[in-house]
Amino acid sequence: MTRLAARGAAWLSLLLITLAFAGPFLWVLIASVQPGANLAAKPTFAFSLDNFRAVLNWETVFLPLINSIVISGATAVLTVIVSGLAAYPLSRYQLRYRRHFMLTLLFTTGLPVTAIMVPVYAMFFRFNLYGSVPAMVLFLAASSLPFSIWMMKTFMDGVPVSLEEAAWVDGAGWVRSLTSVVGPLMAPGIAVVAIFVFVGQWGNFFAPFVLLDSPEKQPAAVTIFTFFSQHGQVAYGELAAFSILYTTPAVVLYVAVNKYLASSFSFAGSVKG
Amino acid sequence: MTVTTTAPSPRVTGSPVRRPSRRGVLRWLVPLGPALLLMAIFMAGPILWNVYIAFTNETLTGSASVNSQFVGVANFVRLFGDANFLNSFALTFVFVIGSAVIGQNTLGLIIALLQRGRGRVTRSVVNGVVIAAWVVPEVVAAVCWFSFLAEEGTLNTVLGLSQEWLYTAPMVAVVLANIWRGTAFSMLVYSAALSEVPADLVEAAAVDGAGPWRRLLHVTLPLIRRSIMANLMLITLQTLASFGLIYALTGGGPGTASQTTPLYMYEQAFRYFEIGYGSAIALVMLVIGALFSLVYLRLIKVEDVA
């Protein structure tokens, strides 16, 4: 009987936790398909896609989403190439300071990027890079590198060196070895790193908010904020619809790499015993 | 975590296999070069630059924007006499302890524990909702919480109250929102850690007559204590630097009631263009972050990973 009670209590707690976590989503989901929605999340049966129709125009949704895709995509591609190259010697060669280097990378991932924004902004201003999307992408890639190199190296360590030997016999150097043997074999790992970086930058608000000057360059994270920060005259249904359009890619990509995440979490707490 | 990294040298002795060119420094410098260059220019550079401008009176407007001067520790003297900074520091402390150390950490552990032995469907539903809160972009998380806590929002509708929570209890609001947002991380770390706890140890304790509480306190928790410490360090680091969620939700207000240090830094550096002073605040944050990061490095078994 007490076992049953314990099971019941556990079940009930999980139910309450689930409801509490679902609560804040309710309004966004309901309001997006309600005509004339305001902040009261009152369930009604009126259903319309008017809110989506209203925001699906160039300035509100398409341009910011394209900006987001360009910024996040360029950062992800650059990060994957640079971290893939960097991982090769770290994974394959006996380097004297490798351990120190890897530890420094891990240490860097802990530093608050928020704090780095002030000097980055000052630097961008001084060197006339303020407002430059390519320069910001370089910064975003640099800040994604420490963790990406870690992940890349871990995935690369999983590819046995013996598989490269045939290529060496054929006289391939490290570049061929990396691009035609190691790369294809760790393609899933590369995809995980790319998606990880992409999703991270997709949600990044602070960097573009501070480093980009004009609204036409801003990604969705910033335009939705300016849309929402003018509380009061906001069309709430449209805000909800925009939120959903902006969130969906992140969720889809997350689901795609979900099964690889479990292993990175035993890494995050990578502590046994 | 896995695999030792040392590339095994070709095992067949006398085999004709020649490894790719091993010509000195270049063999590692060329592939590592781009990464080193990017990190030197855009990470190490700004940090060093930050150390320098924190000791100047650099601004973006006015005379100090043209020729800033070295002002020694003046920014730091000002900082520790600045009531707004001290306020922000206290609020950051409340925010980190409340939302990360107590909220995310405890709730993450509780959910991970409750999920053990439950069916697949239950687990996926709970995981799905908790992780969704973590996957949505932070500005969308702010939209969710803004509407949830608004005067006509979901919470008041459910409770039958009429409160503008973001004004009457801004810190409670941002702490709750951040617990909601960050718990998934701790939950995933603890699920991974708990799955490594050997079942026979827990069963042995049960056979010896230990109830669920004692098994948890004396068997399970001690076995995952390093994961607990590592998780605490990581979520503290994430929460210390939290900007977007608070900024979008309350803007630090009303007044300075929820102005944590990153928001105060933002105000000084980007609203008043006091770059030198803002850098001094950033430097304090960097030093605190570095200390936590070092503790994290000490905690994890790096022999396994590096």
Describe this structure in words.
The complex is a heterodimer of chains A (273) and B (306). Chain A is mostly helical. Chain A is 77% helix and 0% strand. Chain A has a single domain (51-262), classed as MetI-like fold, CATH 1.10.3720. Chain A contains twelve helices and no strands. Chain A is globular, with a radius of gyration of 23 Å. By secondary structure, chain B is mainly alpha-helical. Chain B is globular, with a radius of gyration of 25 Å. Mean pLDDT of chain B is 87; it is low at 1-16. At the A-B interface, helix 1, helix 3, helix 4, helix 5 and helix 6 of A face helix 1, helix 3, helix 4, helix 5 and helix 6 of B.
TL;DR of this structure?
Chain B: It is a multi-pass membrane protein. The complex is a heterodimer of chains A (273) and B (306). With 273 residues, chain A is mainly alpha-helical.
Core attributes:
heterodimer; A: 273 residues; mainly alpha; MetI-like fold; 12 helices; disordered C terminus; B: 306 residues; 15 helices; globular; transmembrane (chain A); MetI-like (chain A); transmembrane helix (chain A)
CATH topology of chain A: MetI-like fold
Please outline the major beta sheet of chain B.
none
Terminal Cα span of chain B: 9 Å
- What is the overall shape of chain A? globular
The percentage helix of chain A is over 70%
How far apart the termini of chain A lie comes to 35 Å
What topology emerges from the helices and strands here?
The complex is a heterodimer of chains A (273) and B (306).
Chain A: H1 2-32, H2 50-55, H3 58-92, H4 98-110, H5 113-126, H6 133-157, H7 162-169, H8 174-185, H9 187-202, H10 206-211, H11 220-229, H12 236-268
Chain B: H1 26-53, H2 74-80, H3 83-115, H4 120-135, H5 138-149, H6 154-159, H7 165-168, H8 170-194, H9 199-207, H10 212-223, H11 225-240, H12 244-249, H13 261-271, H14 275-299, H15 302-305
Helix pairs in contact in B: 1-14, 3-8, 3-11, 3-13, 4-8, 8-11, 9-10, 11-14, 13-14
